[in-house]
Amino acid sequence: MTSISQNAIDILRENDRGTYTVPTKGLYPFQWNWDSCLTALGQRHFDENRAWTEIETLFEHQWPCGMVPHIVFHQKDDGYFPGPDIWATDRPVPTSGITQPAVAGFALKRLFDRAADPAQVAPRAAALLPKIAAWHRWFFATRDPKGEGLVAIIHPWESGRDNSIDWDIPFDRVPTDGIAPYTRRDTQHADPAHRPTKAQYDRYLWLVEHFRALQWDTARLHDASPFQVVDPGFNAILLRACADLADLAETLGRSDLAAENRAFAARGLAAMEGLWSPDHGQYLARDRVTGQLIDSASVGGLLAAFCAIPADRAAIIAETIDRHATRYRVASHPPQDPRFDAKRYWRGPVWLVVNYMIADGLARAGQADAAARITASSLDLIRENGFAEYYDPQSGEPLGGGRFTWTAAMVLEFLSMEG
Ligand code: GLC
């Protein structure tokens, strides 16, 4: 029988398009931002050089303003919607016009720290450093216009947790009138009952068309968006990336970038306190338009443990995960929530990338047992159910796309964490 580690390597090779990796054949035929950065962490276990290329390719498509787009459409493929013609971003190689969780700074540091020969990869790290720093600078300049210390997403797709319950209330504010007729493609590859609804899709597209009408001027989009949400998970990833980038910049002699990123991290960490909910024992998202915290105890607020939150907060998050416990942890929404939907994408299912970041953060915060439970549960899930895009947290049923790249990458990481 093939080991899960060999299986994971086979999947990563199968989805490799030379200089970037597709998340899975059919459903997602291009390069996705956070998928690629996390994929590199898997690739490093069998081909370090290829892992660096994955991130370098992504940054070749960084916009002059500093934004790194959420999708790079390297090749034409009609199997995906919305494609380049809908985004119409006017880039040499077409890209989308929004971004995704800024995990690159974390991934870069991990690649560097675990490199077989750090001196050999130092020039590659040094070349990526200012590019990632420019992305972080863009985030705080355009997505935190009032200098609150935390950034907002302006489209649910930016969060990476597309149809999370977290977005329901702010998303209701997004109109659906006037959008061009369209045909979805995701529901041709996966069960429509496991995907976002039509009402959500109409709103996703309304926002895209609205931003396109503003010529994708990223300095204008935040204020022009009816959807502005401060997601603790998204911010935790950015703040961790800032702190990691600062450390790496120090090592590589860029004390200017180190100071800048350290300041972003410190200010953001202080502001995270405003998202803490003692009642839920975790962080919550804030609707920036109304100023209200959103009453949804999702995995976004647990993912906050990925950045350097206070140790007592991390301990409470570990308890909250136990309290919500499903057979496979960590459910994207707890089954106790009446809106929980075990099979619908980000409204209940387990996703291995999120597990990985929560486990990493908890381990760093001294919650080694809680981290080990997530690692063990994640590997059980794969051994029992194979490599899918996401899973029912109660039955373990594999859902969405199959032979999924980042799931495979995370398995290699989890195996190495297990020791
Ligand atoms: C879905 C996920 C997103 C991911 C993309 C490619 O849109 O919600 O997080 O990046 O698929 O795997």
From TrEMBL:
Tell me which domain of life the UniProt entry assigns to the organism this sequence originates from. Bacteria
SUPFAM superfamilies reported for this sequence: Six-hairpin glycosidases
Pfam families (UniProt xref):
MGH1-like_GH
Alphabetized UniProt keyword annotations: Glycosidase, Hydrolase, Plasmid
Q: Which residue ranges does UniProt annotate as crossing the membrane?
A: none
Domain Mannosylglycerate hydrolase MGH1-like glycoside hydrolase: from-to ranges: 28-407
Instruction: Report the family membership.
Output: Belongs to the glycosyl hydrolase 63 family.
PANTHER family (alphabetical): MANNOSYL-OLIGOSACCHARIDE GLUCOSIDASE (PTHR10412)
Protein name as annotated = Mannosylglycerate hydrolase MGH1-like glycoside hydrolase domain-containing protein
Q: Which organism is it from?
A: Fuscovulum ytuae
* Taxonomic lineage of the native organism: Bacteria, Pseudomonadati, Pseudomonadota, Alphaproteobacteria, Rhodobacterales
